[in-house]
Amino acid sequence: MKKHILICLLAFLFGLPPKLFSQTYQLSGNPVNTTGWNLVSDAVVSTDFIRLTTDQTSRFGAITLADPITLSYCDKWKVEFDFRIDGNGTAQFGRGDGFTFWYLANPPTGFVSGGGLGIPANASGLMVGFDIFNNTTEGQMSKVHLLYGTNNTAGNNIEFNNTPGSTFHSPDLIGTIPFVGNTYKHVEVNGETDLSNPTNWIIKIKIDGVLIADQSFAPSGGAVGMSQGYFGFSAATGGASARHSIQNVKVFVDKVPILSNTITPFVCTNPATGNGVVDLTSYNSQFVNNPGNYIFTYYLLGSSTPIANPTSFQYSGNTTIKVIVKDPTSTLCDNGDGVIQLNPTPFSATDATLTGCNNNNAGTATFDLTTAAVTTLTGTTKEFYPTLYDLNNGINQITNPSAYASAAATIYVRVTTAQGCVSTSKITLNIHPVVVVTDTELKSCPIEGNPSMASFNLTGAVVSQGGLTKKYYPSLTDAINETNEISATAAAAYVAPTGVAYIKVFNSNGCYSIAKVALTVLAPVFSRVLKDKIICMESKTTLDAGPGFKSYEWSTGATTQAINNVGVGTYWVKLKTGDCIALQTVKILPSENPVVTNVDVSGNTVTIFANGGMPPYQYSMDNIVWQDSNVFPNVPRGESKVYVKDSYNCTPIEINITVPNIINVITPNDDGINDVIDYSALANKRDLEINIYDRYGVQLFRADRTNGYKWNGTANGRRVPTGSYWYSVTWNENNKTNTPIKFSGWILVKNRE
């Protein structure tokens, strides 16, 4: 059998989708499924096996495919089946005859006598017989016969066919592998192209794993050049008898998967020459996936010579091309079922329409002219022109057809097929309606703690009508270029200062317009009457935010316009205007107490000097009667208190003062009467300092601890002349502020002359 035979047989047998690599045609199941097969004579389905003959003499049975199979282009194949030959036999001849697996051009259709194992006379093809009757000795045997040719020997008995190179006869296997028995035996028949002689097959036959045959066979007789036949099994008993059964039939082939058997592409002929040129290889991907993995050969139907120039094949009329797909790894059988049918037809491009978007009301749309449906053919070239005049004269060709900006217009295109056929058509450019948008404004309350920022709901901005798609961007450039898009989630709470954002609005056609959204952070509205206060530390006051606010919320928990009886501290109030809340802080500060900076005592007149607090001050010697003057005349000698308060009328400050009891005249004559001025009563004062000056301001004496704070009218150990002298006494009172006291006056010194 030529290697061309088997692949087509198996392709037909399997009937599986072409994308599957492993293909199998079977006789299996319980009961056995015989769809696609014909049962001949005695052959019947018996549960899970096919019984070819009953255990009687002169019986015949066969099973064959219902349709003939064309075999071609296969390098490897494999057949597996199980057989059983059993029964009682006849008294005279024992059991006979045997059965055959075959591929025949003329399979049996009726009774065939037993000598040829159910194979008709002059049948041609591949026959593998399993013979149990020795026609020479009329005894039982177990032999395998193989004939790759024509069954034309005497008696149609392949046992006696010895065509050189086309036959095989095994030794008698009855001692090791007896064919007759109650159990099934498993058979494997493998075929592979003999690379040293590609018309031959290397056939391997195994029974229950034992290799029976392994050699190269050449086709002979009617098997040479055989192109179609039938696959099947047959058995006959002749003068002896046996029951012949088969089951679990499987025929395997791994064939290059093919997607389509016939491709009829559009082709045309050039009117000028009457011929067309086509690249046959351009259709490879329509036959198989991953065409680069295979080798393609192309033949004119009926020719055995490959087409030499498949990439530029010239034709003129209807032409049928046979396509052979080969796996270079030899893992898969060749597939010769592909056909390219070339039926030249006049070529005519069709008019088309493109509709584009007038995005953002730009006045033009950008069209991809190359997408216009002017032809369904692939491999064409197109030239686009703005006018028919330009096309006819080959001028002003559009150089950017995939991004052509234009208003509504008519464009002309020249289409040239791969075969050189030319046709022209027009493309009508239409403009979708403009997406109508309206700029708008969003105002939002400031964020607490960051009054320059607010959260805006961009998704709620009404910029268009209807259910259009929207995208959000921080700038116009971003909206145009679709960069830095704000997600819908973020747009619902977009935090920004006063400024703008942009919304790109798309309709169902994908057209868009861009709307501007002005963003305004509302200024917080504060109370104009609520201001910081200064009160006495021990006092209470009222804080009033004033009327006109939607609601009030104080830090004290109060929700009234004013809060009463509040003391020194810091407070806040949330003032709501519309939907916005302004947080306003107010302080109640303690007043600053005035401070007595110094006290001047001149004789019995006391002058108080104060600072700090809030002038004007009031003064008192008894904390009952108050005066605006800081001068107190006729203050008695000794310890007194002075009170000072400022305009806040808080608890007054209190200081102690001392008006010394000093004698204004001394007569230092040592008579023990008015001999000295005694300042010792002031010895407990802090920083006590006593000085005596003459009328020119020259210091004459300093009283201190060493002289007992006394002056006896001397200076530098000598009596001073009779006259008036000035004294100045200063100290700091023992109080919190160490109030400085200054006491001054005059003294008359009378000395004896």
Which helices and strands, and how do they pair?
Elements: H1 4-14, E1 22-27, E2 37-41, E3 44-46, E4 49-53, E5 60-65, E6 69-70, E7 76-86, E8 98-104, E9 124-134, E10 139-150, E11 167-169, E12 185-193, E13 201-207, E14 210-217, E15 228-236, E16 243-254, E17 262-263, E18 276-278, H2 284-287, E19 295-300, E20 313-315, E21 319-326, E22 335-342, E23 352-356, E24 365-367, E25 381-385, H3 388-393, E26 404-406, E27 409-416, E28 422-431, E29 440-444, E30 446-447, E31 450-456, E32 469-473, H4 476-481, H5 488-491, E33 494-496, E34 499-506, E35 512-521, E36 533-535, E37 541-544, E38 551-554, E39 562-566, E40 569-577, E41 580-590, E42 595-602, E43 605-611, E44 618-620, E45 631-632, E46 638-645, E47 653-659, E48 665-666, E49 677-678, E50 686-693, E51 699-703, E52 710-711, E53 714-715, E54 718-719, E55 723-732, E56 740-749
Parallel strand pairs: 17-22, 23-28, 29-35, 36-41, 42-56, 48-56
Antiparallel strand pairs: 1-16, 2-5, 3-4, 4-16, 5-15, 6-15, 7-12, 7-16, 8-9, 8-15, 9-10, 10-11, 12-13, 13-14, 18-20, 19-21, 21-22, 24-26, 25-27, 27-28, 30-31, 31-33, 32-34, 34-35, 37-39, 38-40, 40-41, 42-43, 43-45, 44-46, 46-47, 49-52, 50-51, 50-55, 53-54, 55-56
